[in-house]
Design a protein that fits this description.
Chain A: This is FAD-dependent oxidoreductase. The structure holds two protein chains of two kinds. Chain A is about 30% helix and about 25% strand. Chain A is an alpha/beta fold. In chain A, strand 14 and strand 15 (about 265) form a beta hairpin. Chain A is globular, with a radius of gyration of 23 Å. The two termini of chain A are about 35 Å apart. Chain B has one domain: Immunoglobulin-like, CATH 2.60.40.10. Chain B is built from no helices and eight strands. Chain B has a five-stranded mixed β-sheet with strand order 2-8-7-4-5, with no helix packed on it.
């Protein structure tokens, strides 16, 4: 690429191809095409920003499997009765009506990188000049012995929001005093690092609110430590004394098998029984990224830290949970931030828009108990071949109640803001 | 909330084999130094001793202090020379003794 920028390269290619293939009167009307797979905080944001900021110069198609999108972020607050399911479910109507984005409800089945087309499950194909993959995660069910997609109908993972989240809520609400909950928490890397521990907090909140004193929540973790551990541990002891028992692999010795029907998780140490099992297995990039051949051995997509462009295909950008984003966690905030960097670079590729140096940011809020919010976050820049944290912050143990309340309220404000930014 | 021991000992061993024993007790280990939301001191309630015997002979024992975290976990080794029974006992401040027994066969 030296001497010739990607933008000029693309324009030259586009110009020669269209002058060969099309009569002159059509050439003027042809617009570059951007196809986005995945309508979450990464995909929907990039679709909107490309469509809006190119003011009609780029044709944008957004492919998502479902009509509406239930956010995984704040879904723990639904479990804890702080949000309704409707509160966390959003549609694409405004993206279509305000910015002229074409929305396709369907599953993208494969990508032909030579032909630059996406084939949908129904057999139709969509051509692209730039493709954005924002497919989120796939669950690796058999990474937890005994667990499967069928078992997830009894012992939900609920790590992709939607029916699984509702199933988990039903099961949580059915737990009786004296019955236990067992969570298996995943190894790194995974979507939403503080998520399992906020979820534990919401489980405990629901049990406590019902006045339960005999139920326990066991967490059998694949990791020796976890995000905001000091804050969660302090919060659990303060709000739910004796209810939560978290064990890392040095204590439980490894998860040997899950029996969803029996409600048991066997570890090397002992068998843990629960009326509710919440099994969160290992994860990898959504299947379409694997199909496109852009994933690494671990199942995630390496990207160029300056642009979110795939390291193996200049025409493909990858956002959010599916990407290897250096120091950035797999979060909605990250995906939304990455989408804006990608949108600038896509517009620079396809139009005469100017690309700016990449800057990213993220914050992960967690609610431990009513008005007891904590957060961790950072600003990021491309550095030494990756997206590197340049300024970090985290809530501290022992903060006063007013600050924790303000942190929670900040998260509620953030949710309203990001939803507007992504879907509005 | 009940305090339940969870213990991992092999069911069989060879004569002379050194085995790993792992023992966890769910217990709040309330230090007696914390205050509740109204400022009142939460009374001390800890497990203050742990013992492990084999055929009633001491294998391992120790005292526990208030600084030890909730759900104390022990991991130690024992040399097995004959078949017999391990007995584990945790003594609570309130006098309760939580026990667990495990038989091991020398093959």
């Amino acid at each position: 690429m030296s001497g010739l920028t990607r933008r000029h390269f693309g324009l030259l290619l586009g110009a020669s191809a269209s002058s060969l293939a099309l009569p002159t009167y059509l050439r003027a009307q042809e617009k570059p095409r951007v196809v986005v797979i995945g309508g979450g905080p990464g995909g929907a944001t990039v679709a909107k920003y490309v469509a809006r900021d190119s003011a009609g110069a780029i044709d944008v198609t957004l492919i998502n499997e479902t009509e509406t999108f239930t956010t995984c972020f704040f879904s723990n607050l639904y479990l804890g009765d702080f949000q309704s399911f409707d509160d966390i479910t959003h549609d694409y109507d405004k993206l279509v009506s305000n910015y002229g984005i074409k929305k396709i409800t369907g599953r993208a089945a494969s990508v032909d990188r030579e032909a630059k087309t996406v084939t949908l499950a129904d057999g139709s194909t969509v051509p692209y000049d730039r493709l954005v993959l924002a497919p989120g995660i796939d669950i690796i069910y058999d990474s937890v012995p005994g667990y499967s997609q069928e078992a997830a109908q009894i012992a939900p993972h609920a790590w992709k929001a939607g029916p699984q989240t509702q199933l988990l809520k039903e099961k949580l609400d059915a737990v009786e005093d004296g019955q236990n909950i067992v969570m298996v928490a995943p190894p790194n890397p995974f979507r939403c690092p503080p998520g399992p521990y906020e979820r534990i907090s919401m489980f405990a909140h629901v049990l406590k609110k019902k006045g339960f004193t005999r139920s326990k929540i066991f967490v059998l973790d694949y990791k020796e430590s976890f995000s905001k551990q000091a804050l969660f541990t302090e919060g659990w002891e303060a709000h739910y004394p004796g209810m939560v028992e978290w064990y890392g692999p040095d204590v439980h010795g490894g998860v040997k098998s899950v029996d969803a029907a029996a409600g048991t998780v066997e570890t090397d140490l002992d068998v843990f029984e629960g009326a509710l099992l919440n099994i969160i297995p290992s994860q990898r990039a959504g299947a379409i990224a694997v199909d496109a051949g852009v994933t690494n051995e671990a199942g995630w997509v390496p990207i160029d830290e300056n642009s979110m462009r795939s390291k193996v295909d200049d025409s493909i950008f990858v956002l959010g949970d599916a990407s290897v984003a250096g120091d950035m966690p797999k979060s909605a905030f990250s995906a939304n931030s990455q989408a804006k960097v990608a949108a600038i670079n896509i517009r620079a590729d396809l139009t005469d828009a100017r690309a700016f140096p990449a800057r990213y940011s993220n914050t992960c809020w967690s609610l431990i108990e009513t008005n007891d919010g904590v957060k961790v976050g950072a600003q990021y820049e491309p550095k030494d071949g990756k997206i590197a944290a340049v300024e970090t912050f985290i809530s501290q143990p022992g903060e006063d109640a007013d600050l924790r309340k303000a942190t929670y309220e900040e998260s509620v404000g953030w949710y309203a803001g990001i939803v507007e930014d992504v879907f509005g | 909330m009940s305090s339940r021991p969870r213990v991992r000992v092999p069911d069989t061993a060879k004569a002379g084999e050194i085995i790993l024993i792992r023992a966890l007790l769910s217990h709040p280990m309330e230090s007696g130094q914390r205050r509740d939301s109204s400022g009142t001191i939460i009374p001390r309630k800890i497990v203050n001793s742990f013992t492990c015997t084999f055929n009633r002979e001491p294998v391992f024992s120790c005292d526990l202090e208030p600084a030890i975290s909730a759900n104390p976990y022990f991991e130690f080794h024992a040399k097995i020379v004959k078949s017999g029974e391990f007995e584990f006992a945790w003594t609570d401040d309130d006098g309760t003794i939580y026990t667990h027994k495990h038989t091991i066969e020398v093959a």
